[in-house]
């Protein structure tokens, strides 16, 4: 199977076309990467949506527990009944305030996930975040600086192993940075590994010519 050929046929396109095909016109409002001449996008991914949903569920349960415990402690230790007609009114206000807080937290974390991308091109691997409130973030490794690399795919826990959700760790040799490049639970770890390997094979064939 020609890995390089298959990736070229499917993935050699501009970054805006990739985002338009996968996620609609909304993502064309901002550029993810400014491709250099001869640079083509192999894959663009977010963190896996299942990991976001599981973490969201865990946060919501934790937040509900904290708000409930706080409400019980406050109502039993302080005399708030004089400020309200009855405890039902106080409970209603506390519930509305708690739900509003949870919604704000979850909206923030959703947008942080939605505007964060892992990108592999034939010249670089990129981690980008475009969410204005949490700040812009960009990490880029130019593959022309890399002579060798090790790619490791591993799940974070047994549940992710069962769901086949894996992290991708790329370790470099003969590069100024010692720490690896980490793809945290991407949507398709196999696609990222195949893309990087195909780039390495192609770069090696060019060096031999």
Short note summarizing the structure:
It contains 6 helices and 7 strands; from the N terminus they run ααβααββββαββα. With 209 residues, it is an alpha+beta fold.
Can you offer a commentary on this structure?
- The structure is a single chain.
- The chain is of the alpha+beta class and 209 residues long.
- Helix content is 48%, strand content 19%.
- It contains six helices and seven strands; from the N terminus they run ααβααββββαββα.
- The protein has a four-stranded antiparallel β-sheet with strand order 1-2-3-4, sandwiched between helices. Strands 5-6-7 form a three-stranded antiparallel β-sheet, with helices on one face.
- Strand 2 and strand 3 form a beta hairpin.
- Helix 3 runs antiparallel to helix 4.
- It is elongated.
- The chain starts with a helix and ends with a helix.
- Residues 1-30 have low confidence and may be disordered.
Strand content: 15-25%
Helix content: 40-55%
Strand order of the largest sheet: 1-2-3-4
Residue-averaged pLDDT: 75
The major β-sheet equals: 4 strands, antiparallel
Q: Give the oligomeric state.
A: single chain
Beginning-to-end CA distance, first to last residue: 22 Å
List keywords for this structure.
alpha+beta; single chain; 209 residues; 4-stranded antiparallel beta sheet; disordered N terminus; 3-stranded antiparallel beta sheet
């Amino acid at each position: 199977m020609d890995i390089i050929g298959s990736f070229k046929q499917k993935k050699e396109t501009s970054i805006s076309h990739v985002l338009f095909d996968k996620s609609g016109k909304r993502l064309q409002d901002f550029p993810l990467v400014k491709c250099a001449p001869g640079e083509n996008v192999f894959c663009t991914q977010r963190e896996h949506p299942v990991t976001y949903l599981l973490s969201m569920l865990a946060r919501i349960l934790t937040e509900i527990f904290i708000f409930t415990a706080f409400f019980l402690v406050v109502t039993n230790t302080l005399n708030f009944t004089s400020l309200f007609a009855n405890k039902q009114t106080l409970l209603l206000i506390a519930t509305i305030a708690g739900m509003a807080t949870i919604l704000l937290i979850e909206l923030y974390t959703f947008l942080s996930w939605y505007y964060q991308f892992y990108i592999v091109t034939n010249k670089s691997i990129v981690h980008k975040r475009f969410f204005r409130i949490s700040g812009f973030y960009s990490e880029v490794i130019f593959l022309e600086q890399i002579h060798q690399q090790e790619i490791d795919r591993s799940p974070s826990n047994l549940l992710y192993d069962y769901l086949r959700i894996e992290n991708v760790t790329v370790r470099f040799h003969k590069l100024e940075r010692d720490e690896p490049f980490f793809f945290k639970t991407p949507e398709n770890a196999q696609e990222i590994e195949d893309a990087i390997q195909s780039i390495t094979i192609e770069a090696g064939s060019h060096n031999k010519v």
